[in-house]
Structure formats: C-alpha cells, structure tokens
Sequence to fold (123 residues):
Amino acid sequence: QVQLVESGGGLVQPGGSLRLSCVGSGFTWRNYAIGWFRQAPGKEREGVSCISDSDGIIHYADSVKGRFTIDRDNAKNTVYLQMNSLQSEDTAVYYCAAGVCLKSLSDENFGSWGQGTQVTVSS
Fold:
C-alpha cells in the first residue's frame, strides 16, 4: 500500500523557520520524484517545490525561491522541506506527493498524496 506521511508543521512567528518531512512507503521510493504542495483556505492547491528521483533536478515556485530548500534522503525514504523567513502568506496545509518533477509544478504530474500538515505563520 502506497503511503506518504507528512510531519513537521506547526505555528511559527513571521520570520521563523520550520522543517517539514515526508516519509514514503509501499513503493520503490528512489524511482519517483517527490513534490511539495500547499493549499490555503479558499485557494487552489499550488506547487511549492519538487525534487527528482535520481538526477538532482529541483524546482521551486517563485514565491518560495531563496527561502525554501528541498532535499531527499533515499536511505530513509524521506524528503525534507526547509522553510525559512516564513511569511503569513505561507500559511496553508502542506502536502507531499510522488510523481514527476517538472518546472510547472503541476499537481497533475503527481499521485499518491499524503494527508497534509498544517503550517500557520502568525504573531
């Protein structure tokens, strides 16, 4: 059974940092790119970042470039999203998914979604 589990969300003040984790199981982890997406209340889901399976390709949404960093540890079946300089606009439920990492960060290229982790940026 394919499963992705996100963790690491929480409440943080503006300017703060969080590190999200996505752990996968039930599939050949190293054969899939992993993407991070987010959905704020009343808004559509948007792609945040993705990392390819083996060739090191990484893409970021313009809104997070320079603030967020994605990396993966295939030995642990885990992808991380380090989020720095968080802003209120980053408040959302963050999801990870397995699929294909393209510059478009379209969720159409991803399946097998996790349940999400809430990130709230507020003073």
